[in-house]
């Protein structure tokens, strides 16, 4: 199966052909995928070199002229390094752009901590007005990329990852999808966490919601699920643990509830290993998730049942 990032250049190249507003801004990373697009659209495919602050600044300038820029590089270089430009050039100037990241939280462990960005979504959460898509499969990435570019002049972040569920689902760029219904709690699985969550809860009496658009947070879906499944809520996210706990708490503010946020821990893992080793170390593999969800959810079937 191809990866989400494999879909990025072909999808955006088609968008360049279809819409004269669309432009692509790169900082070396991913430039090889746009060789042909640059030949056809030399004024709308721009590589600024290894200058990530300029990457965001150039995208902002394009947006202010009426274009729809798509900026791409690793998440740590797209959100963390140029955060001041994201905050001011895009946010303060109310300029819309599509930021498309790669490498997710730890997709390239051998690259070291400089190429890891588990805090990217939490960091964007400090700013107003961002839509955040977290696809869990290449087909979903393609759909959400198109949604992002077509979203008027909004500020949109699309988080691509090598981690993927086995099959894609129909997503609309807005709502959570109900994958399984139960009566002993709600588990919200974000993006590529869905398969592990389904394996972990296979015989547990819980509702599983699938979130590929995490901002705005689909409070209505959580409230509907909680009305029948109860108000014990577990959030399983492929980025910093607890990133969405405030949003879940706000959604259920008028009813007694408990929220457990599972995700990537704050401790740096200095033996980088493989992706699956990172998932296990952070308790995001199916076995660890089962133990943690079973302990937390009221009325869940015991692990050995």
Unreliable segments of 5+ consecutive residues: 299-305
Net shape? globular
Strand content: 15-25%
Largest sheet: 7 strands, mixed
Under CATH, the topology of the largest domain can be stated as: Rossmann fold
Side by side, the strands of the main sheet go: 2-1-3-4-6-5-10
**CATH superfamily caption of the largest domain:** Thiamin diphosphate (ThDP)-binding fold, Pyr/PP domains
Rg (C-alpha, Å): 19 Å
Could you report the average pLDDT, rounded to the nearest whole number?
95
Strand segment tally: 12
Q: Between the first and last Cα atoms, what is the distance in angstroms?
A: 35 Å
Determine the fraction of residues in helical runs and give it as a percent range: 25-40%
State the helix count. Answer: 12
Domain Transketolase-like pyrimidine-binding: 2-167
Protein name: Transketolase
InterPro entries: PDH/Transketolase, THDP-binding, Transketo_C/PFOR_II, Transketolase-like_Pyr-bd
Which SSEs are present, and which pair or pack?
Elements: H1 4-18, E1 22-26, H2 35-40, E2 45-47, H3 52-64, E3 68-74, H4 75-80, H5 83-92, E4 98-102, H6 120-124, E5 130-133, H7 138-149, E6 155-159, E7 177-180, E8 186-190, H8 194-200, E9 207-211, E10 213-215, H9 219-229, E11 232-240, H10 245-251, E12 258-264, H11 275-281, H12 286-296
Parallel strand pairs: 1-2, 1-3, 3-4, 4-6, 5-6, 8-9, 8-11, 11-12
Antiparallel strand pairs: 5-10, 7-9
Helix pairs in contact: 1-7, 3-5, 8-12, 9-10
């Amino acid at each position: 199966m191809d990866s989400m990032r494999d879909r990025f250049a072909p999808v955006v190249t088609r968008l360049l052909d279809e819409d004269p507003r669309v432009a692509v801004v790169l900082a070396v990373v991913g430039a090889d995928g746009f060789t042909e697009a640059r030949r056809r659209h030399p004024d709308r495919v721009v590589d600024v070199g290894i200058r990530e602050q300029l990457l965001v600044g150039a995208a902002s300038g394009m947006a202010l002229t009426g274009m729809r820029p798509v900026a791409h590089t690793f998440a740590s270089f797209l959100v963390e390094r140029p955060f001041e430009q994201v905050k001011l050039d895009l946010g303060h100037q109310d300029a819309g752009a599509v930021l498309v990241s790669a490498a997710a939280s730890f997709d390239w462990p051998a690259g070291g901590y400089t190429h890891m960005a588990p805090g990217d979504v939490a960091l964007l959460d400090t700013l107003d007005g961002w839509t955040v898509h977290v696809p869990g499969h290449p087909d979903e990435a393609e759909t959400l990329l198109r949604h992002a570019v077509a979203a008027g002049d909004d500020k949109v972040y699309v988080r691509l990852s090598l981690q993927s569920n086995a099959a894609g689902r129909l997503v609309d760029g807005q709502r959570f999808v109900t994958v399984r219904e139960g009566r002993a709690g709600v588990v919200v699985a974000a993006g590529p966490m869905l398969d592990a969550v389904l394996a972990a809860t296979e015989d547990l009496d819980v509702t599983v919601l699938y979130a590929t658009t995490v901002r705005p947070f689909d409070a209505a879906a959580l409230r509907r699920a909680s009305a029948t499944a109860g108000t014990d809520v577990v959030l399983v996210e492929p980025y910093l643990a607890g990133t969405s706990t405030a949003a879940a708490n706000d959604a259920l503010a008028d009813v007694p509830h408990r929220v457990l946020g599972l995700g990537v821990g704050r401790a740096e893992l200095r033996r980088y290993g493989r992706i699956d080793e990172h998932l296990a170390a952070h308790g995001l593999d199916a076995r660890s998730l089962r133990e943690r969800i079973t302990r937390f959810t009221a009325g869940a079937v015991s692990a050995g049942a």
